[in-house]
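Help!! Second protein's tokens look totally different from the first
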Amino acid sequence: AAAGVDGELVLGRLEADHGDAAEAVERLREEWRRQPGIAVADALGWALHRDGRDEEALTFATTATDSAKGGGVRKALYAYHRGAIELALDRPGVARRHLELALRTNPAFSPLWAPAAQEALSDLGDPPLTEAPADVRLQAAPVPP
């Protein structure tokens, strides 16, 4: 890494977004073996998603975004990647949460992906009442005496 720049990571991200996703997966898997870390987990997860391997992609995206898994860096791009992967896996509630987090963290996080996040949220519409978290219980207000 010259001057703190990891060329393989940069090239892998570029391939995933604008080139050959399978090439990105190959490049980033090698990088993961060499130096596993949050940035590589996010990039590899995104490359796997772009290559159509969403179940495996979610494993790496979770590593990059879930503090219980060692990630949890509050980075809009990572949240967007996880949201897009969740959406591809037909998990609209979790996808919505991560897409909203991406835009809350930085509404202009990417000229390419911020508009895609906004469009995905618009397409999802308002969450149905059945998507409330399991630990949220609606209770009737107490009746005054």
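Here's the second one for comparison:
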Amino acid sequence: MNKALVNFIVKKYLRFDKKNPFISVSAILAFIGVAIGVMVLILSMAIMNGTAKEFERKLFTMNYPLTIYPKMANTVNEELLNKLTKEYPNLKFSPFVSTQAIVQNGDNMSGGMIFGVIPQNEAEINPIYKEAVKDQLINKYDLITGIGISDKLLLTYDSKVTLYFTELNPAGFSLMPKMKRFNYLSSFRSGLNAYDKAYMYTSIEALQTLLQKEPNVYDGIHILSDDAFGDIEKLKITLKDEGVGIVGWWQQNGNFFAAMKMEKTALFIVLMLIILVASLNIISSLLMTVMSRRKEIALLLSMGASSKEIKSIFLRVGTIIGFGGIILGIILGFIGYFLLDTFDIVSLPADVYGSAKLPLDLALTDFVSIIVGAVLIVLVSSYYPASRATKIDVIDVLRNE
């Protein structure tokens, strides 16, 4: 059977069948279902990737690329800081002391984590802090808070606030409150509500004095690095015998990103089922076509057509329906991507998601996975009915039909 005849039969089977309209309707539904499935998958993966990257950017800002912490008492100190500064001139270091505190202004109170830092060092590694400080002179008991805290406490420049700290009383094994007046200087806006409502900064000298820490001992050192994954390995070697540990921002938020990855995988599988369900219409449509065209198939086989040629006819019909749906889905997916990325069709609460605009970022690997998955489902769905078409009993069909 020549190619022209095969193409003619394929086109004939793809036309709307007026005698059996349900077959054509089933094929149309399969086409639309595959297209919708591919489109939804493209948009969903783009949103998941964009959201993950947006949170990663925000977390990176407030969590610092690398952080050194003590494994034993007094191991993170000025001597270690000087050593690292000398050995790694390409890195920026900011030592800190931290504790929990309650801040009060009038009858309003709020709690959170307060960091004592060296302003010059912190401004070099933390753009959020730098933006809040600008060129202001930071005194010992000046306070910088997240915008959530300052709004809640109704703070204005140079407001006098009271900070309450707790310290363990070794004699009575009790927590004794300690209070100190601070001058409110300014606020920072990180873009993440959790940080804006819980983080505060002051001078490192203030916390060292209030917590009765030695002047040259720190709770940790934040590090700015352009290659955190590479530098952490070098620093581990340097810090091997120093009684300290080091973690990267990805390790501090490992559970969060693992959950995001699992959610993305689960969403991919669930949405791929849309294409799988649509492919069932391809199977039913082709099987009904085979049953309604039994006489034609038997005649073709009796005239010398091979089983391979018959199979290829129905395989092509199924793949044209499926691949057509995939192509339409890709086009609709990218149109949707463009519209969502260009216009504010979906608006998000910035204090919850870190951005008012819906973040989109379609990775090439995700796009390829979607297309490969859809193609495999379509091929498998087309193969079974095509193989059934070759199993027709020619003599029995011609005798009875």
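Reply: Different proteins will give different token patterns, so don't panic. The mean pLDDT is 87.
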